[in-house]
Each structure stands twice: as C-alpha cells, then as structure tokens.
Amino acid sequence: MNRAQPLVLGIESSCDETGVGIVRGTELLTNTVSSSMDEHVRFGGVIPEIASRAHLDAFIPTLDQALADAGVRLADIDAIAVTAGPGLAGALMVGVCAAKALAVATGKPLYAINHLVAHVGVGLLDQNAADGGTPGGSAQPGGAPQLPAHLGALLVSGGHTEILKINSLTDDVQLLGSTIDDAAGEAYDKVARILGLGYPGGPAIDKLARTGNGKAIRFPRGLSQPKYMGTAEEPGKHRYDWSFSGLKTAVARCVEQFEARGEEVPVADIAASFQEAVVDIITSKAVLACREHGITDVLLGGGVAANSRLRELTAQRCGSAGIRLHVPALNLCTDNGAMVAALGAQLVMAGKEPSDIGFAPDSSLPVTSVLLDA
Ligand code: KG4
Ligand code: ZN
C-alpha cells in the first residue's frame, strides 16, 4: 500500500445519491454520482425504500463508470472507504454491503467513515485550490497535507444543519451546534410544498425569493431568545443550535390567514421572507460559534450551499468577523463519493488502521466518531 499517495475508492449511499469517487492522496481522479432525486419528486421528499432500491440498481454502473473515468482498475486501489453513517438505514446498508463485498473480493483494507466529516474532508482536495475554495491542503514535507489550525465547518443540507470545530480531521471533530428538529433543506422542501412550488424546494424558493421582498413578513428566528442563547460566559443550552419547525408552521399560518381573508397569497414575498429568516439565523449563530471558539477559517458544505442568499450573507458576516470562508465546487458540496475517498485517503496517510469487516452502518452515527473500528 502506498501510504504517501494512496489510491482510494470512496462509496457514498446515505441518502438519494449513489456516489463513487476515486482520489490519489489529495488529487481528485473522478467524482461519479447517480441520483434518484427524480424518483422522489412525485412524493415531495426522499422515500427511503425507493432510495435503497435505486442504490442497488445504480451501484455497479456507477462503480464501472468511476473506474473508467479515473483510468484505474480495482486491483490498483490501495483502500476502500465507505459512508457508515449518519443517513438512511437501508440506503447506508446498500453502500456498506457493496463496500464489504469489494473489500473481501479484492483483499483491500476498508475504512468505515463518518459522512459529516467527509463533507469537510473534501476541502482538502487539490481541485479546490484551483477554484480558490481550499481551506488548506498544502503538502507538508514528508507528511499529509494540513488543514488550517482553527477550522470550522458549516454543513447545511436536506439531512443536516451543523456547525463543527475540526481539531483534527482524522480523530478530533467537535459538534458545536446543530438543528434540534428539521434540517434547513428539509424546511425549504416543506415550505415549498406549502407554497405549491414542488420538490426539491430549495432551488424553487431561491429563484422566486429574488423577485420578492425579504422584509415583507418577519418570520421567527428559532432558538434566538435569551433563555436559549445565554451569554458568552454562561451559554444557554441552545446557544449554537437551530430549530426550523416553528418557522415552517409560521409560514403555513401566514398562508392560511391570507386565504381566510380571501386575499391573494404573496408567494414571492413569503418565499423571500422565509429565506431571510433561515439564512439570517444560520449565519448569525454559525459566526457566533466561530468567534467564541477561535475559528478563523470556515468551510461551507451541503446542498443548501447552492443557495445564493446563504452564500452572500455567510460571506458578508464571515468577512465582518475576520473569518475566511471556503466554499468547495458545488458538486463537491452535495453528497458524493469523492468526499468519502478524500477522508479515506487522509485516514490512510495518518496511518490509521482500517475498520473491522464486521462493522454495522449506524444511521445516527455521532460526528465525533470519524472512523468505525469494529
Ligand atoms: O446535500 P444534498 O444534495 O442532499 C442531502 O440532503 O444530503 O441537499 C439537498 C437539499 C434539499 O433539501 C434542497 O432543497 C436543498 O438542498 N437545496 C437548496 C438549494 N439547492 C438545493 N436549498 C436552498 N437553496 C438552494 N439553491
Ligand atoms: Zn451530506
């Protein structure tokens, strides 16, 4: 095994994307993704059983495509990495079983890794340096590339909303705050349904919001009251946490009130005001957590990183707080196999032992568990 520049195959199947990525050290060779999103559209959200079956259908073609794109053979691979959690149980099971089968058939070591930490690991790929998005990744003489010393990660997608502190990507990741109910992308999808905008709701609301007034309606910012926030000296229980379920209900009530009065529902203003509430509370709490934990660089990841207003306000508020913001290319922000391969390569380069083949996927794997060992 080449520990300096390992050739790593990464497999991702935690939600509706079947991803196979291949990296050599920090060099991205391929990021091949097959999504079952279209099959979920008529249900207005991801249906776990449909996603699992789609992973089964897509896995071998996606793997073949990835190997062909990268111009490598399975026999050349040094290690296999797979998302072990968090995610949908059945969907994870498909990727994990496929990875175990490949590992047993080829005799390659297998790394069972954390999906959330993989979202951060993607920031180490050289490709990000090209678009100015890298948070580090400079090769150190004789060692693995280094991330900035005070790195945070803001992950915002249909499945997660978290602010992390990365003390060490391979074994020390701290959860500073997270949503206590819906993920931000989930709130976008649910509100889009209330507004009759279809699925996925994020891009539809993002587009419509540009034509509306974000100040038209003041929607609630969840967990922002002093009793939850506390102070820097005496932090409240939810100082860096988010809640989006009350916001979704507020939008539903607002629509009902317009309808009850027989008035036309100002959909664009509601979309813009909802978006303003989401983006305001995400960015204000994330920047607060960064400032109070000495974070100087923050990586933005997850599907909602595509949101124009989130990018704009995060950049603005990070800038005012003296925090450098890094946004990987969008296809590396959403769920993919390259991020899994990237983190796998970091673990190999750090000399970590592979996982025991007997491990089970864990749908609620905590972010503090970077690598499963058994
Ligand atoms: O990371 P992702 O592809 O899958 C996971 O959920 O893990 O994220 C999908 C989510 C969906 O909820 C979608 O509505 C949201 O990201 N999304 C957006 C935008 N594009 C995608 N939300 C807001 N604005 C967007 N432009
Ligand atoms: Zn994800």
Automatic annotation (TrEMBL):
Cofactor note: Binds 1 Fe(2+) ion per subunit.
Keyword set, alphabetical order: Acyltransferase, Cytoplasm, Iron, Metal-binding, Transferase, tRNA processing
EC number: 2.3.1.234
Subcellular location: Cytoplasm
Binding locations of Fe cation: H115, H119, D335
InterPro entries to which the protein is assigned, alphabetical: ATPase_NBD, Gcp-like_dom, KAE1/TsaD, TsaD
Gene Ontology CC terms, in alphabetical order: cytoplasm
GO MF, one example: tRNA N(6)-L-threonylcarbamoyladenine synthase activity
Co-factor requirement: Fe(2+)
Domain annotation Gcp-like: ranges: 27-341
Function: Required for the formation of a threonylcarbamoyl group on adenosine at position 37 (t(6)A37) in tRNAs that read codons beginning with adenine. Is involved in the transfer of the threonylcarbamoyl moiety of threonylcarbamoyl-AMP (TC-AMP) to the N6 group of A37, together with TsaE and TsaB. TsaD likely plays a direct catalytic role in this reaction.
Family: Belongs to the KAE1 / TsaD family.
HAMAP family associated with the record: TsaD
UniProt protein name: tRNA N6-adenosine threonylcarbamoyltransferase
Source species: Arthrobacter ulcerisalmonis
Gene: tsaD
